[in-house]
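User: Teach me something about this protein's shape.
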Amino acid sequence: MKSKSLRPFHLAFPVNDITESKVWYVKFLGCKVGRESKTWIDFNFFGHQISAHLSIEKQSSQKNDVDSKKIPIRHFGIILRESDWNNLKNRLINLNINFIVEPYRRFKNQKGEQSTFFIKDPSGNYLEFKSFKNDSAIFEN
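Assistant: First, the predicted structure itself:
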């Protein structure tokens, strides 16, 4: 589906503690808080709306082997411009975040060349942050 202007997406996901999640998403990712209640909170996630909903269920930790790394099957994230990706990576390093998958470059000198890293929020949700060398290669085979 091709669009003249990209529209923000919405994603709802489970968390174990609303207050802890609020602190983490604001401190580590620089998200702004939108509407909130005792059981959910909205964040501005790089121009998109994500909603953390209070849940008592444990998060899935299933992983696949990708590039000889254990990649969480259930994850979400964003594709950033290279400068924004580097700024976020450096911010997280300065805040001593524990990377689930350290920042690295995939498909070097190939179609789809990209930088990526994975982190985990306090509720066990995995997030991936990518930056493509060429955005036109995002959906290419």
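Now, about its shape. The mean pLDDT is 92. The beta strands are 10-15, 32-36, 40-45, 48-54, 63-66, 69-72, 75-79, 101-106, 114-120, 126-132. If you'd like, I can walk through any region in more detail.
User: That's plenty for now, thanks!
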